[in-house]
Design goal:
This protein is of the alpha/beta class and 343 residues long. The chain is built from eleven helices and 13 strands. The structure holds nicotinamide-adenine-dinucleotide (NAD) and UDP-4-deoxy-4-formamido-beta-L-arabinopyranose.
């Protein structure tokens, strides 16, 4: 089966995608500089799949290092490029670090692919490219607005870089995947999200509160024009998200793409409010959560959710899990993670 290079393979989405790729018979090599991960995810992947995935502890911002990986593996059939820094707030404080890391690593990976004639590329993009979208649900042709952060701008620029490189590289094919709000964990609880401490995304904030790392959590605003006053997002289970990568890769390998570069939204297709997410957690965990209403968080949009018809039709992708599944698996992972840290 084809060999796939997964960059950022020790991270949250990369590790779950590796499991799905192995489950579908692909061979995987990972490259991750461990700037936001350790290699424990590789142990989890081994426990789940029985396969040990090799990882290059490599900074993809270094071209020679990147080229070496391709020299070692002349049979790489495709690349899934997850490696990036991803904290929106941090990117506002450290724009140069974000532009340097996210753009240089992308450019080097594309350069190495061109030199080694590797033809299939999947890029981790983000719903943040839409900015404050003018219409809901967001389709792939919804016009992109001004980026709200340097992080989001690295994704807008990344998409453009991929498209420009493709124009100059006949044969190179790419899929840009725009994730909405990934959350949850593998059902085994052997891999999951290991956020920076303290977490900033809603689902790990909820599980960190429930496990006692925080005394209570804040709901950022209940005066939005939504059904209960809190913001609406499209939470996509990590295993559904992971499977979309395998499908996108197979789509390219089969030559089913009509254009050299195609874009897919990856969301469940409907929105959940912050309060609904909290209630889902309480329902599946049987545990009351300590929360209070606080001020709006600067930069938050009122509501965003995906039109995912394109991914359903062309990739045959059907997200099967809902907010309850997200909370159940995120909670199992949080408990497992703290138990193994304390033992
Ligand atoms: P993550 O931080 O868990 O994984 C990214 C991995 O890339 C980390 O393990 C990190 O060590 C590695 N990395 C970073 N820079 C590197 C470099 N220069 N060289 C080698 N390795 C490097 O993040 P994630 O949540 O798994 O996100 C994966 C991708 O998906 C990123 O591109 C992110 O921007 C994108 N994305 C994430 C979300 C989300 O909410 N998690 C949403 C939309 C898009
Ligand atoms: C979700 C909702 C908060 C924490 C971010 C990035 C986006 C993409 C996905 C990378 C919002 C509310 C949160 C808390 C809360 N990442 N909330 N209390 O901001 O939708 O998207 O992750 O590409 O680019 O911006 O996700 O999980 O931070 O917030 O009330 O303690 O939960 O206000 O409505 P967001 P989030």
């Amino acid at each position: 089966m084809p060999k796939i290079l997964v960059t950022g393979g020790c991270g949250y989405i990369g590790s779950h995608t590796i499991v799905d790729l192995l489950d579908h018979g692909f061979e995987v090599v990972s490259a991750d500089n461990l700037s936001n991960a350790d290699e424990s995810a590789l142990d989890g992947i081994k426990a789940i799949t029985g396969r040990r995935v090799p990882n290059y502890v490599a900074d993809l911002c270094d071209l020679d290092t990147t080229l070496h990986i391709f020299e070692d593996h002349p049979d790489i059939a495709g690349v899934i490029h997850f490696a990036a820094l991803k904290l929106v707030g941090e990117s506002v404080e450290q724009p140069i670090r974000y532009f340097r890391n996210n753009l240089n690593s992308l450019i080097n990976v594309l350069d190495a692919m061109c030199r080694h004639r590797v033809r299939h590329f999947i890029f981790s993009s983000s719903c943040s490219v839409y900015g404050n979208a003018a219409e809901l649900p967001v389709t792939e042709s919804t016009p992109l607005q001004e980026a709200e952060s340097p992080y989001a701008r690295t994704k807008q620029m990344g998409e453009q870089i991929v498209q420009d490189v493709l124009k100059a590289s006949p044969g190179l094919q790419a899929v840009l995947l725009r994730y909405f709000n990934p959350a949850g964990a593998h059902p085994s609880a052997l891999i999951g999200e290991a956020p920076t401490n303290p977490a900033t995304n809603l689902v790990p904030v909820i599980t960190e509160t429930a496990i006692g790392l925080r005394s209570e959590m804040t709901v950022f605003g209940n005066d939005y024009p939504t059904r209960d006053g809190s913001c609406i997002r499209d939470y996509i289970h990590i295993m559904d998200l992971a499977n979309a990568h395998t499908r996108a890769l197979q789509y390219l390998l089969d030559g089913r793409n009509a254009q050299p570069c195609e874009i897919f939204n990856l969301g469940i297709g409907h929105g959940v409010t912050v309060l609904e997410a909290i209630h889902a957690f309480e329902r599946v965990s049987g545990q009351a959560l300590a929360w209070h209403i606080g001020a709006r968080r600067p930069g938050d949009v009122v509501a965003v959710y995906a039109d995912n018809a394109r991914a359903r039709q062309l990739l045959g992708w059907t997200p099967a899990r809902n907010i309850d599944d997200i909370m159940r698996t995120a909670w199992a992972w949080e408990q497992q993670r703290r138990r193994s840290k304390n033992s």
